[in-house]
Amino acid sequence: MWTAAGDGEFFCPGCGGDRNYQRLTGRRRFALVGVPVLPRGETGPVVECAACGRHYGTDVLDHPTTTRFSAMLRDAVHTVALAVLAAGGACSRTSLETAAAAVRSAGFDDCTGDGLSALVDALAADTGRVSGEPGGASLAIELHEALDPLAPHLAPAGRESILLQGARIALADGPYTPAERDVLATVGAALTICSNDVTRLLAAARTPS
């Protein structure tokens, strides 16, 4: 016997898309001729898809919906672009336009180089930032806040793609600076890419395809 204990939207692994769900708790009863008579303890909770009717463990709610995943990915690319620009490329028009193109591709359709430049200037003026250290502790925290929740839901190729986008922004105005390398190393760590693979990918980004 199920009792509804909440509802919402989730990514249904059976349907393969965003669906409404009910969170159910249940009590088992011994049935005699189809009539429940004796209690046999509690069961659940489970998540029931409103579309297909299947039941799943509540851990299915840890997976973001398609809409939420898209927003997380968009914010991650935006944060990485700002971090790389703040580490040394904000004065270069080429870097700004490369970053703006990456951010637009991620979903911020109205992003421009000038807009990113203004945001980088605002970050530099933020009293919470470590003066003279664009790759400092505050920036590392911002990157981890944007990337840590996303990383478990990305395939290895997806995590590498975000790092390579940051690398291309850094390389748009010349070789990596030490500050840019530090930022990209932080990006790799937040995306759970091992240091050897980070080194390999940064080297590959320097090689024209």
TrEMBL record:
It holds the Pfam family TerB. InterPro entries: DjlA_N, TerB-like. Residues 80-200 form the Co-chaperone DjlA N-terminal domain. SUPFAM superfamilies: TerB-like (SSF158682). This is TerB family tellurite resistance protein. It comes from Streptomyces lannensis.
